[in-house]
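Pipeline run #58 for the internal structure catalog. This entry was flagged by the ingest filter as a single-chain record with no existing model, so it goes straight to prediction. Upstream metadata was stripped on purpose; only the residue string is passed forward. Reviewer on rotation: M.T. Logging verbosity set to normal.
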Amino acid sequence: MPELPDVEVFRRYLASTSLHKKIDGVEAPGPRVLKGTSPSGLGRVLKGREFTSTRRHGKYLFVRADGGGGAKSLVLHFGMTGYLEYFEGGPGPGVDMDHARVVVDFSGGAHLVYIAPRQIGLVTWTGDEEGFIEEKGLGPDAMEIDRDGFVELMRGRRGDVKSALMDQSLIAGVGNIYSDEILFQSGVRPDAKAGDLGGKKLREVHRVMRRVLKAAVKARVDPERFPRGYLLPRRVEGAECPRCGGRVKTMKAVGRTAYYCPGCQKG
């Protein structure tokens, strides 16, 4: 599932391709992804406007559309398999239009396409981004929460640290994959109790979380481009640990499979 680094890559891609172009119309071949609106309703909101800025909060992408009487924001959540494609003229051979769910048509023949083979993402619009974030019950963004705020949130948790990192109402943006990497880099087992880690270790987890998320964005979420010593490229049970040479193992946490190295993650 796309997590904060994936959505940040999508945000930068959209910002570099699709801003300041007049929207001629919107099609929704996969209306199941639309929430709180309809194909015609989304078209009425966006037609004649221009995307002017982007913002990410956790796993949600907001795209501000100005013009037409008051700003509105297109809201995108990418579910399990969603991503964006931009092209001018016709789609290239690598563009999966069979799974195009929403298509934004710009003046001049350019197009922005939300593609989701599994239709479990979300596309909607809002006139109040902060209100939307509050309505969804999202905590502070994982890249924006400060060290003291992070420590305070974690200190009050009785459950394991992996579930705390993945709790979107607590901290927005981290999911199953990057929680494993954060804990591996911190030397903390996934089933360690968050409230038992202590202030010094929690401050380290916060620092590592920011470092890992930044590294993932820099690598454009390609595991082969991650720094040496990262778990993600070897996130397979029985794989060799990139640090100690031991074997990667799994355990269940929050109903998900967690990957860790028993030799490196003893805390």
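catalog note: The first helix runs from residue 4 to 17.
catalog note: The chain has a mean pLDDT of 95.
status: ready for reviewer M.T.
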